[in-house]
Write a structure and sequence with these properties.
single chain; about 350 residues; five-stranded mixed sheet; about 25% helix; binds uridine-diphosphate-2(N-acetylglucosaminyl) butyric acid
Amino acid sequence: MVILKFFVTFADMIQTCQNYDLSARNTFALAVKCKRWVEYDSADDLPLVVGSMTAGEKWVHIGAGSNMLFLGDYDGTVVHSAVRGIDFTDADGCVLVRACSGEPMDAVVAECCRRNLWGLENLSGIPGEAGASAVQNVGAYGVEAADVIESIEAFDCERMQAVVFDPSVCGYAYRDSMFKHSPAKGRYIITAVTYRLTAAPAPHTDYPALRDLLPHTPASPAEVRAAVIAIRDSKLPDPSRVPSAGSFFKNPVVSRETYEQVCAAAGADVKVPCYETDDGVKIPAAWLIDRCGWKGTVMGNAAVWHLQPLVLTNPERKATPDEIVKLEAAIAATVRERFGVELTPEVEHV
Ligand code: EPU
């Protein structure tokens, strides 16, 4: 099918395109389209971008598309920030790092490590953009973005004005924030995120896989970054070769009773891994899925990564959204039947 593309520039820095192919805009590489694509490269363009939506027009703002699953062609407008830039400011013994929303998160982390600033190094190698780090509260190897977020700049689409949030009002929790839920979802567009980092050493290397690689006190954020990247490379698919959306499911947090039920279902001789949290017992979804025998399974054009079964992939770039959804449902059903635990997707279905 021929896709008609035409670009209209309705301000200097805003690009819009009709019937736009999103396959390079979602890391699952699903061949889906949207009715209209809008990309802007200055937060000052947002009144015009948001003002261009007609009454009742369906629209969604995306980042790098690394934590989403398009369920089919998107019958509306997809908006993306191409606003780039990272600023560093000294403040009371700390360094405030302000990253614009469209800056690749790993570029921010790499630059902070290069400058010997501590705080973001455990988040090395995470796909996605800085704006999404404040929505999704990205996390890895014992650190979450919210641990170091100082403030969040956003555009309020209801009041059509810029706002600044203190992280304490943003409802941060495991892979969660108010920006993922109504009424904030769809109302605020993150335009920049400021992280509070330190020049004084502050390593977090308690996560077992990281501690194994760094049993000593690391000398620099760059050393931690190198270790994190090595661990990621050993377990996770290379995003440039194997399309995926990272962890597909969240690690479920269950009651002590449910945990005992999982232990009983696992068998007397099996130790079910778990982490105590304020809300209950967190069980690695990867472990539950692994025990159900899913590692490396191929279903149609969708597959389960052979080294980390929490990651669903589109290895040949031929999968349809439906094939991923079917695989998701099949995995969730076996975990439900075997362990009585409900898996919830981390990946947003759009
Ligand atoms: N496990 C298995 N089999 C496997 C892999 C893991 O049983 O094949 C069990 C093991 O018990 C292991 C545990 O799962 O100790 C945890 O595995 P891992 O350390 O790989 O971490 P995860 O909980 O599966 C989370 C994040 C990842 C993040 C890693 C490291 C979620 C949903 N996922 O995975 O984030 O990189 O921890 O911190 O919280 C992402 O969000 O896209 C992502 C990759």
